[in-house]
Structures are given as C-alpha cells and as structure tokens.
Amino acid sequence: MHILHVVGARPNFMKAAPVCRALAERLAVRQTLVHTGQHYDANMSEVFFSQLRMPAPDVNLEVGSGSHAQQTAEIMRRFEPVVLETKPDLVLVYGDVNSTVAAALVCSKLLIRVGHVEAGLRSFDRTMPEEINRLVTDRLSDLLFTPSEDGDTNLEHEGVPTENIHRVGNVMIDSLIQLLPVAAQCSRDGLPDRYALVTIHRPSNVDDSESLKGVLESLLQVNEQLPVVFPVHPRTRQRIADFGTHLEKLYLLEPLPYIEFLALQRRAAVVITDSGGIQEETTYLGVPCLTIRDNTERPVTVTVGTNILVGQDRKKLMSELGKVLSGKGKTGKVPPLWDGNAGDRIAEILSRTASI
Ligand code: UD1
Fold first, then answer.
1. Are 98 and 115 in contact (CB under 8 A)?
2. Domains of the chain: total
3. CATH code of the domain covering residue 79
4. Is 178 inside any structural domain?
5. 201 is catalytic
6. Is residue 309 located within the same domain as residue 346?
7. Is residue 89's pLDDT more than 70?
8. Which domain does 278 fall in, by range?
9. Which one of 6, 15, 36, 38 would you pick to mutate in the ligand 1 pocket, going by the greatest count of ligand atoms within 8 A of its CB?
10. Is the CB of 40 under 6 A from ligand 1?
11. Tens digit of pLDDT for each residue in 199-249?
12. In a domain, 175, yes or no
C-alpha cells in the first residue's frame, strides 16, 4: 500500500506528523510526503519539520504565494505529474488550506482515493476562503476523518454516506501532547511573567484597512492592562507595514517555532487570536481564548472548551479581558477523543478499510 501525504502550510505540519508516524509503524505501508511550498519561509515551514521529527519532504512543489486562483492552480499543475509518476493508492490531505483542496481536486480526477484529515468542520461562512476549501475537499473525499461530533453531523446533513465518516479525534492535539513536556522546559528571556498572547492573520481582520485599524487599536488598549506578546504572521506584518501603524509598545516577535509557541501558550493568562488551531490548543491547555471572529468552524471549543467569540467588538473583548484579570476567565473541558491517539486511529482504520 502506498500512501501519499500532501502538506503545504504551517497548520498542516502538526496534523500530518502523527499520522505519518503511526503509519510508519506498519511495515506494509510505503509513504511519500509532498510539500506544496505554499509556506516557504524557514520559520513557517522547515523548523516545524525538525521539531515534529517529520522526514524531509520527498517532493517540494515550491509554488510560493499568489492569488487564491493562481496558488491553487499552480499546486494542481505541479502536483498532477507527481501523482502520475508515484501512483499512490491513497492520498491524505489535511485541514482547509489551498494545498488541501488543490490536491483533492487533482486526485479525484485521476480516480485516486482521497482521505481528508480534519473533515466536516463548518463555519457556515463562505466569505472565508477556508470554508470553500473545506466544502470542496469533503465533497471529493472518500474517507472523512472528523475531530468531533459536529463534524459527523455536518457531513451527514450534506449527504455523505455514514460509512465514509470516521470520528478519530484531533490529530493536532496528538502533536501537542507529544511535545508539551519539551515545551514545559522551554523559556524565553525578556518577556513579562503575565501576558496576553496574540496571533492575527485572517484576511477578514488584516486585509481591510478599517478592520486592521480596529484590531490594532484594540490590542493597544489590551496592552494597557496586560502586556501583549504578538508573534506576527508574514501576511499581517506586510499589512501593518503598508498601514504604518505604530506598535512599539507591544512585544512583537517573528513567527515562532512550534515548541516555542506552545511554551508561550501554556503560560499565557489569555490568548487572543483568529486562528482555527489555536482555539483548539487553548481548549486542551485550559487557557482562556478570545477569538476575534464572529463564527467558528470549531464550535466544540466554545461549547466544551475555553473559547469565546468576541468578533471585532472591542467592548466585549475588554469585558472578557476584565474577567480574566479578576480570575474569572472561562474554564472548560477537553473534548472526547482529543487524547493523543488520533493518528493511531487513522492508521488503524486505513489498515482495516484499505488492507494495509
Ligand atoms: C494560510 C491558510 C490559512 C492558515 C494559514 C496559517 C489558505 C487559504 N489559508 O493563510 O487557512 O490559517 O495559512 O498560516 O490556504 N508568506 C510569507 N512567507 C511564507 C508564507 C506566506 O511571507 O512562508 C506571505 C506571503 O506574502 C503571502 C501571505 O503571507 O502572500 C499569505 O500566505 P498564504 O499562504 O497565501 O496564506 P496565509 O495567510 O498564510
């Protein structure tokens, strides 16, 4: 059995690592790892491979940046010959980035089976590029691995046959559990003891100058009550530079490696973010999370975990921050099957359904 994994952007790497590892323990599986090159800076890509102990990619398509159509089309154009040459029995795609949907499209037209890891998540907001990627990828996938019950329900409503849906839990939490002991040993000089950790990169928050201005003003206001530590995504850095906003009062950092970011998350008083994965990681860590979005494709982080959607409503952000500062921040539980064994469950299902 030959399984080909496709990864491309930062949030893919920690999802693929546990699946690659679980499959490597099965002797009859040959694996090929393809990196599309959607993320290419060393601190957005290479460092994750080394910290997650992933093998170097067998193929790097080096597509780089572009508009959505350009990037997706370029991945498809460069990926198709790789599939034709390596002839995998199954292709695994991860999450909701442009690399995910591009690879799923190529394989479904070549009649190669596709497995989607992190299937079924829906924000029901089609202004998000990731929502389009999720809908199309799930529609084209033969095996749908979901992290939580809402994923199964969404897929069933869309008419996906139940036998194709496999609730395996959260692969990203596998990586977190594996590396948390290492993160616990990791400290960073020059940062305050108590801080709010911030990440912002969604187009809806940073591409429109009015929205970005509002978000940055909110962060400056937060910083008056709790120091803000802010590793800045390249997309956001570019927009801030275009915009000329002054943020010297904040602790601005380059994008951080996985372990260093995990170390900052576990010690944070609160996390303020618009990321998808960080809503889940904070829920696992029991750290209150204020999400600068109106909706989430990961509702279990709100119903079970520590997440609160504050949108771009500054009053709500400040009032939730006040609760955190007075020791009344949201507490929660870890959702079922977020236990470090999701990668093994996927390998097990593949060995049953695909005769590995
Ligand atoms: C992508 C994903 C998003 C995910 C995010 C994590 C899609 C549609 N979006 O968004 O779901 O949450 O990754 O980071 O796939 N850039 C660099 N260096 C890099 C990569 C990007 O400088 O290594 C800059 C480029 O200017 C690029 C911009 O960041 O144009 C955006 O990168 P892109 O991959 O298009 O989307 P992200 O915003 O990173």
1. no
2. 2
3. 3.40.50.2000
4. no
5. yes
6. no
7. yes
8. 186-325
9. 38
10. yes
11. 999 999 999 989 999 999 999 999 999 999 999 999 999 999 887 778 889
12. no
